[in-house]
Amino acid sequence: MTQHNMIRRADMRDMKALLQLLFQADAVHNAIRPDLFKGNTSKYDEQELETLLQDDSKPIFVYDDGEVRGHAFCMVSEHKGHRLLQDVKTLYIDDICVDEHSRGQHIGKALYEYVHDYARSIGCYNITLNVWEGNDNACNFYRSMGMQVQKTGMETIL
Q1: Mind listing the pLDDT tens digit for each residue in 25-35?
Q2: How far apart are alpha carbons 121 and 32 in whole angstroms?
Q3: What is the pTM assigned to this prediction?
Q4: Measured between alpha carbons, how far is 63 from 38 in angstroms, rounded to an integer?
């Protein structure tokens, strides 16, 4: 069985695993930017996750080999008739997280490739995402997937 066969659209039975992975993702962000991320929390609560699981414009995919070992939260958006921008359909990866005990098994790669194929199948022009400065592992991973910098966000802390 290929790794792609272990990826499916998330549903309500995945709630506990999704929340655990979201806590792990927050821990990574908190370690890099404790001034912004509170730590020991989740980006979404159960009610928000339930709503997301039903929203086709925000698909969530899980890597499940009998146990959920990773997720990819996505958002599909489309710009049409914009004064400045070309008409474009984009898949934004809001979050990819692989369980800390399953890292190094190419689960992140399988999730990214699955999302890539999904984006192409629904007619997207591109895939975008944000990576926090200092998250070198994520930057290196996405570069290895063929992604390149689209724009740079900058800040001054006052």
Answers
A1: 999 999 999 99
A2: 35
A3: 0.94
A4: 27
